[in-house]
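Repro:
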Amino acid sequence: MPENDQQIPKRTIDLDPDEIDAPARAPFVELGLVSCFSFLRGASDAVDLVMEARRLGYDAIGIADANSMAGVVRVRTEAKTLKLKPCIGCRIETVEGLAFLAYPKNREAYGRLCRLISAGRMRTLDNEWQEKGVCDISLAMLAGHSKDVQLILIPPPDLACEFTVPAWATPDGTAESEQREMAVTAPFVEIVPHLAAGLPALHHIAATFFYAGNDLARIARLDALAKDHDLSILATNDVQYHAPERRPLQDVMTAIRHKTTVARAGYLLQSNAERYLKPPETMCHLFEPWPHAIEAARAVAGPMLLKAKTYEACRTCEAFHNARTELRGEGEVQEFKAVVLGEAGDRYVMDIGDGQGEVWHAVDCTWDQLAADMKKSLDDVLK
């Protein structure tokens, strides 16, 4: 195809990463964030979001576009330039009207999440060809693809809204075949037990300030509801743009999505300009009565940040690259594990599979120590 001379160049951050230092650890990580890849919903692109996050003092940033992984590449690329750690996820919106933030813990979970989105975009629930731009995902489909995926339930602004969901929390003695056919229609607060029973990966309920006059009472009710079902609330600002001045653009996009005008959109529009990326200190202040909601956001991001950082540290070891070709037999793998665990003690736990460079670790340690111990241990195995 011929070159398009009128094509608008892609926006990128023009900065040398070696010229800046990594930011200090922030007390909060924003996970409920959409980019412009959530078509006609997110009003900011990756450059704006990442630059604002860095300016506000974040050391990590989540990305959760609606039923899509399209925005993760741009966010990861720009975040790497500014030495921010990206948390890769998406927002799953089901045909039942519910929404979840979904953050995979590992590559396998990431693959399952991608297959779920692909299935929803390729076929309808009746197994017909799907229309362009539509994604049909049911709760049953989500349950079948949620292993090692951290799910965060997003409640509606009005907790009295009714939903029809599978009756997963049925009394003991109900036949499994009958249970699959059963459904329950009830307000949000009454369907949570069914969701908790049918989605083992669900551990959090998102909490957001809507500035509607009842925020404190609403979040307190969500907190009590979560505790009743062994869940926890998780703080998020449901970010749809990087700064308040983007709110008019977001209103225009909302009107286009609903095929109307801004003047006639009415309650389809946000009631205020609060859906922007707020500083970590502001989020901590807002959720001061619920510090565990702030801690939950950091905890969900934790496994992704640790694994990403471990992978980057291991890539710096020349011996690690050699190990990809040298480590083959089960005996050598076990010897490698024994050497690493014997020298590293309790600082971290590692595993490696069939010489393909898949590495996990738990328990914090310094990355310089990790790289040095990796290289020494590999040298001991390969010499």
